Amino acid sequence: MPLRHPAMSMLLALSALAASPVAWSSYAFYVGKDFTESGAVMIGGTGEEVSSHWLEIVPAKDHDSGETLSAGVTQDASIPGKLLDIPQAPHTYRYLSMSYSDYVGFPAPLTNGGVNEHGVAVRDVWATNRSELIDMTQTPQRGPQYSDLARLVMERAKTAREGVELIGELIEKHGYSTYGGNTHLIADDKEGWVVWEFAGSQGLWAAERLGPDDIRVLYPGYIEDFPTDYQDNPDYMGSDNLVSFAEEQGWYDGSGSFNVFEVYGRQDTEARTGGYKYMTQAELEQAVEEMVPVTERDMMTRVRDPRIADDEAGYGQVISLFGDTDSDLIRAWVAPTGSMAAPFVPWWLGVQEVPPEYGQHRYLTKGAASSFLNPDFQVQEAADFAGRRFKQVMYLTCAKPDTFLPRVTAMLEGFEQQSFDDLAWVETSARTLIEQGERDAARKLLTHYSQTRAADAMELGGTLVDWLTASLDLEGGLRAPEGALINDQGGETVNCLVNADPDKPRDAQ
Question: What's the rounded Cα separation, in Å, for the pair 195 and 183?
Answer without folding.
Answer: 5
